[in-house]
Design brief:
heterodimer; A: 115 residues; mainly beta; 0% helix; 55% strand; B: mainly beta; globular
């Protein structure tokens, strides 16, 4: 009955590879997000989708491509992985949609290590 | 750019004492939220205070917001060992959807 789930939990890969992280929420929320948390615990928003439509794109390199097949899923595909991509990636969802202003529910995170 | 700055970066107190964490921000906001993150886990929402509110309570948590000073504080009363975690403030603005900008967090350790 996990609210926001992510797979995989850990991902170790070589530089230059392409990888995907999946996120699913069963809360019926309209809005989903991807965040990156670096080694200093600084958490920064990357993308936001509302009902499958991209709303926020925070100057993320175009090697990162989010995909939302339906409003319950928001996947993150990363091409040509670089050392600096190593971080913990969190998916989140929010019930507020475009009205905004509400709390966000976070997944457990995916720790990506690029070697 | 980072919106919130939290103070202190680390706080260590005895169980039963109160813990106060502060957050300052730079621009106008719609709301301010506090989250807790246990080691190796995702963030958990604690409390949300809107820009037109000054104080809010939830159980042992008390949050204040001073929009004139662009600052907020989180008070945890009667701390417990289970409160050991990192605490983040996040300022919320509406840009199509709600955008949260997080501070760098306060690492709170409660000593038994």
């Amino acid at each position: 009955d996990t609210a926001v789930s992510q797979t995989p939990k850990y991902l170790v890969t070589q530089m230059g590879n392409d990888k995907s992280i999946k996120c699913e929420q069963n809360l019926g929320h309209d809005t989903m997000y991807w965040y990156k948390q670096d080694s200093k615990k600084f958490l920064k928003i990357m993308f936001s989708y509302n009902n499958k439509e991209l709303i926020i794109n925070e100057t993320v390199p175009n090697r990162f491509s989010p995909k939302s097949p339906d409003k319950a899923h928001l996947n993150l595909h990363i091409n040509s992985l670089e050392l600096g991509d190593s971080a913990v990636y969190f998916c989140a969802s929010s019930p507020m949609g475009l009205a905004g202003g509400g709390e966000q529910f976070f997944g457990p995170g995916t720790r990506l290590t690029v070697l | 750019s980072q919106q919130g700055e939290e103070d202190p970066q680390a706080l260590s107190i005895q169980e039963g004492e109160n813990a106060t964490m502060n957050c300052s921000y730079k621009t106008s906001i719609n709301n301010l939220q506090w989250y807790r993150q246990n080691s190796g886990r995702g963030l958990v929402h604690l409390i949300l205070i809107r820009s037109n509110e000054r104080e809010k309570h939830s159980g042992r948590l008390r949050v204040t917001l001073d929009t004139s000073k662009k600052s907020s504080s989180l008070l945890i009363t009667a701390s417990r060992a289970a409160d050991t975690a990192s605490y983040f403030c996040a300022t919320g603005t509406i840009q199509g959807a709600q955008k949260l900008v997080f501070g760098q967090g306060t690492r709170l350790t409660i000593n038994p």
